[in-house]
Design goal:
Layout (H helix, E strand, L loop, with lengths): L1 H15 L8 E2 L2 H8 L3 H7 L8 E2 L14 E6 L4 H14 L3 E10 L10 E12 L3 E6 L1 E5 L5 E3 L5 H9 L4 E2 L1 E4 L3 E3 L14 H7 L6 H18 L7 H4 L4 H11 L19 E4 L2 E4 L1
Parallel strand pairs: 3-6
Antiparallel strand pairs: 1-4, 2-11, 3-10, 4-5, 7-8, 9-12, 10-11, 12-13
């Protein structure tokens, strides 16, 4: 009976250990400094960097968060290599409007395309801003669950679920910029980050000619321009700095293209997009 009880306890505990498979690791302060303080001259030189711009949304009222400010909603997963690449640009962009008080590092799945891409995770992150509200969710970890998917991590809030339903979002990463712009396709290829550590990626951000910088900062610049169009051009120090006004003009023009739709083109060959399939995930 004693042996049976011990075995029962172990079985019970094993079923309780769902969620995060590894302990969160705080991002290196030097890496954070480089990513959250990209030199304005580098940002100006990069411009759009060949990144795919956000798509404009027509006919919807401005979406605000719990703080009454324009809401930036991010939906992704830690295993996803496209999310891994996108997060670098998101961190650069949002750091222009506020401050990350806590941010952990992680990698994409080691068994997916572009394996083990170094990145951050928004799980357990904190962010404060006078200008925008940020609602991120990481739906799974980077650890397989044994059933063809990955271990669940977070479930979108009711508000997040409504946003995903509104835009019929099926893939990672997905970003809604206050219901005025969306990102539903990779902004640039994770391939440019392959084999690079967090430090190496951060160090590259001082070189505007680097493909890494073009991908990350180009993405950040487009996100910044879209956000500025929802904050009434605040803060002015960000929204009037080059190349943001020029990118805003391109986003504004695209919103009035034929049929009210925008088609984005990537500088690289089209990538497979990861999509949700019930409880699992797959690439198509």
């Amino acid at each position: 009976m004693v042996v049976a009880i011990i075995i029962g306890v172990f079985v019970y505990l094993s079923h309780q250990s769902t969620g995060v498979a590894t302990r969160p690791v705080p991002a290196n302060p030097g890496v954070l400094q480089a990513v959250t303080h990209v030199d304005p001259s580098v940002a100006s030189a990069v411009g759009g960097g060949g990144a795919t711009p956000p798509s404009p949304v027509n006919g919807k009222p401005l979406l605000t968060g719990s703080g009454g400010k324009p809401l930036i909603f991010y939906d992704g997963a830690e295993y996803c290599p496209y999310c891994a690449a996108e997060r670098w640009g998101v961190v650069v962009a949002l750091s222009r409007f506020g401050t990350f008080g806590k941010l952990n590092e992680t990698t994409s799945s080691s068994s997916d395309v572009y394996p083990s891409t170094h990145t951050f995770t928004f799980y357990q992150s904190t962010y404060q801003s006078t200008y925008i509200d940020f609602l991120p969710v990481e739906e799974t970890t980077n650890q397989p669950d044994g059933n063809g998917g990955y271990t669940p991590l977070q479930t979108p809030t009711t508000e997040g679920q409504q946003i995903l339903k509104t835009f019929n979002s099926q893939g990672y990463p997905f970003i809604d910029i206050a219901n005025k712009f969306t990102v539903d396709t990779p902004s640039y290829s994770p391939q440019v980050l392959q084999g690079l550590t967090w430090d190496q990626i951060a160090n590259d951000l001082s070189d505007p000619a680097s493909p890494v910088t073009k991908g990350i900062v180009g993405t950040a610049n487009y996100l910044t321009a879209a956000i500025c169009m929802t904050t009434n051009q605040q803060p002015a120090s960000v929204c009037t700095a080059s190349p943001i006004p020029q990118l805003e003009q391109s986003l504004g023009k695209s919103a009035f293209s034929a049929g009210g739709m925008q088609v984005g083109f990537m500088a690289t060959q089209p990538e497979a997009i990861v999509r949700r399939t019930g409880m699992g995930v797959q690439g198509v």
